[in-house]
Amino acid sequence: MKTPVFTGSAVALITPFTDSGIDFNKIAELVEWQLENGTQAIVACGTTAETATMSTEEKKQVIRFIIEKTNGRVPVIAGTGSNCTQSALEMSLFAKQAGADALLVVTPYYNKTTQDGLVAHYTYIADRVDLPLITYNVPSRTGLNILPATNARLAAHPNIIGLKEANGNMASVAETMHRAGKEYFVYSGSDELTVPMLSLGAKGVISVAANLCPAAMVKLCKLWFDGKIAEAAALQVQMSALIANLFSEVNPIPVKAAMNLLGMNVGIPRLPLVEMTAANREKLAQSMKEFGLL
After folding, report:
1. What is the CATH number of the domain that holds 133?
2. Is the residue at 124 inside a domain?
3. Does 96 qualify as catalytic in the annotation?
4. pTM of the predicted model, to two decimals?
5. Secondary structure string (H, E, C) spanning 47-89
């Protein structure tokens, strides 16, 4: 019997950088703040962490550090994906050794693969790492989409327990849930679609916005699971402008800018990402004021 790694809101945690490396003191602050605000899981080294700009050793340091600081209080899901299957396996084995509770493995990007290749890629890792594995489908970044029929094939593996879905296609989500069954747990990978995804049976969200307003994302999910459907929907609508502005430029440029506007001093993105334009930052600040954050 498969069980979900978490239910509710997980934060795809940013990585605060300094000129000389990673600001681990700031990561420790952010982990504590997330836990104080009720976040139900932490994703280490996901997309929002700018993992693509980090060395292998930096990734390992961040994953290990977040696991140690969280200290079992909520699950830590390690982002270990790569477009190289062997590299993804090696990072996944490290994450298990470091004490991660689960893996988040993005589809291969750039070289990509076929649907059969996706099954082979994920099966290769899941056969060799005894941890729950959540696949991550984000075709806008990878150029590769996991089809519902492929999700059904992946769901047959005992260690592949679900999907972070960010393809924006609700019909595809419904078909995946129908084909893959009740023991394949789907999480929204799009903040703006959290309530729609929950309405189809998703177990929660892996959230960018939770870096900025963790309590609101926790509340959104709790309202839904408590059966307060209209209130959950109203909160989703209330957050819509803020979420839109958090994605007005490439993630995590806006969310880092927003956190700095709150005085959290998380630094700026690493190249090739650059700081947010003044015009978009002004719109972001206005939406933060309207939502009561500033």
Report:
1. 3.20.20.70
2. yes
3. no
4. 0.97
5. HHHCHHHCCHHHHHHHHHHHHHHHCCCCCEEEECCCCCHHHHH
